[in-house]
Amino acid sequence: MPILHSIIHRIDKRDGESPARVVPASGELEASAALDELLAGLNDAYHAKAKSWGRFNDDTQASLPGHLKRYLDDELDFTELTHELAHAIAPLVDDHLPLGGHLLVVDHRQGEARYLIMALLHHREGFGIGEQLEIVPSRQLNLSQMTLGARLDIGQWHSGSASHPYLSYTRDRGGRKLADAFAEVLGASESLDASQETRTLLKAFSDYVENEDLPEETSREKTDALIDYASDQASRGEPMTLEELSELVDEQQPKAFYEHIRNSDYGLAPEIPPDKRTLKAFKRFTGRAAGVSISFDSHLLGAAVEYDEENDRLIIKQVPTGLRKQLRKEE
């Protein structure tokens, strides 16, 4: 993960009366193993956060996209770019946060891709062990407390990709006003809701499994393939590509799942961002006994399927079409 440029500015907010002020760094950070490890930890923490995905709004008045373009055209150096960013974020700290923090900005490569990641970081108090084996106070960066964070896929933005959601930014449920204000500063236009898109994809997959009337073992294998791929993409902060996913779900019919999505009009974009929380909640309940085999996705429990624990009964409200036809024929 080669780091091209990195810097840390401080945004101070001492009390409720004084405005937040930027204390700029005099220059970029020097390369070090500690910096590499910090970036790795920052990426992991960022990918675990609830985020919005989208693109720069062409109609925005925000200055960041313009500054970024000048930076990539070598008309603005990295320090100047991040100064502008810090000064744009300072009013958000003033209006929405009880304290300031350190703004870390890193321009780096990951494989063949190039990313710009930024995060407002805070400290937490802890303890360490001194040289004399005594307990000593220790301040550490709290990467999980990332009130503001954003990540730009520079290559995808520069290429003018029509489908790739190249910009993501934090959107914690408890700070809607802050998230909206941050999006405005970034000049971001939210085009995809990761949680909703992931739920829709899983619904499409459940429908596909039902329509294909697959054996339980095959169904489980395809579920594992989907979850493994989606989880891996989420860990890397990358969107899922429906055509690539379709190939993994069914190697014998690599376009079958993709065609199912397109023909059924689920409204999914060719590339969608995975949501870790939604993926973790998705699993299949299975059981087999006395000639009866039952399998269904967890999100159907309480809706299409109900479990009556008192009488130990499973109630299926929406009988699969193929099974319904068989039952009617038998009658």
From TrEMBL:
Protein name: Nucleoid-associated protein YejK
Molecular-function GO terms, alphabetical: double-stranded DNA binding; single-stranded RNA binding
Chief localization: cytoplasm
Any Pfam family matching the protein: NA37
InterPro entries: Nucleoid_associated_NdpA (IPR007358)
Keyword annotations of the record: Cytoplasm
Location of the protein in the cell: Cytoplasm, Nucleoid
PANTHER family recorded: NUCLEOID-ASSOCIATED PROTEIN YEJK (PTHR38772:SF1), PTHR38772
GO cellular component, one term: bacterial nucleoid
Recorded family membership: Belongs to the YejK family.
